[in-house]
Write a structure and sequence with these properties.
The chain contains 16 helices and 3 strands. It has about 375 residues and is mainly α. It has one domain. The chain has a 3-stranded antiparallel beta sheet with strand order 1-2-3, covered by helices on one side. A hairpin with a 2-residue loop joins strand 2 and strand 3. Helix 5 runs parallel beside helix 7 and helix 11 crosses helix 13. The longest helix has about 35 residues. It is globular and about 60 Å long.
Amino acid sequence: MINKILKIDWVLMLCAMLLLGVGLSVLYSISMAKPGDGSLNIFWRQMIFAGIGMVAMIFFAATNYQNFKLQSTPIYFLTLIVLIGVLLFGKSVRGTAGWIGIGTFHIQPVEIAKLSLIIFLASFISQKKMELGETGRLIASLVLSGIMIFFVIKQPDFGSAMVLVGIWIGMTLVSGISTKKIIFIIACGVAIAIGGWFHLQPYQKDRVLSLVKPGVVDPRGSGYNVIQSMIAVGSGGLAGKGIGHGSQSQLNFLPEKHTDFIFASIAEELGLLGAIFVIGLFGIMFYRMRMIAMSAPDNFGFLITIGIMLMFFVQVFENIGMNIGIMPVTGIPLPLLSYGGSSLIVVMSSIGILSSINSRRETTLSQDGGY
């Protein structure tokens, strides 16, 4: 047990804890700007989620990740059942019927679906690589992933669907396929994006269109969020206005400042230096994930690590991109920083799984006689 603890990637863990600390600090300042009516405010809710996430991270770090290989198919179908249930009985929040209410808390199953798809694809690709030919494996994984993506688009949650598409494309590419198949994968990704467009609500289409000219298309409507976000980012200057002193976030000019536009709140209160610090921590995390992938004891662990890295990367790129006006507003959370229990718990669980893979690399290598 002690050896496994020592083999945990403490750099990855430290970066995650620092990002969580930055997020909690900004959420505290936002929460204090508009005190609640005695109910739990966003800061204390996030503290509860962080505590649950820590327990989940420790649990998965201590669990042998290879156990997921046997459970990957039940996990996949259970996730599909939950996604269908959300469409039928879920609660609609900001036009997306993707939430299950439990008292005063809400669970967003699509966040769980991201990790479920990673585990399923890692198991499917690693086990079927010899049983199915390259084409058969590609088509089968596309169909199975496409079913899950379809139910997410129907919510409609275009942003999360694009994360799932990115996970499928990336994990398929690293599984080793020919150039022709790579072109086919890219074409499928484009087709899914085009098909998903017709399932979007009008306000979601306006968000995409406002990306081109946010101040011209609808500056008081769909373009308002992006304009206020860019103002917040620019007004932070080099060192920021200080925690609790951001005018855009504290005076409520910036919409969804605790979720979609948390990066703009950070840039305004902590400045360019704070923004670089956050991006730098994510960069270190990606580097450590790559190192874990390269030293993974088996193909299953390698594919899980790549999938988690893709999940992080797509969300970080999309969220920061929409905060600075280079990506459409899709409601993608910024891992470890944005308010939201489902996202935070899944992200911390993913880090626990990465720790499990990293801590078992030498043991499995010695048992298998090399990899």
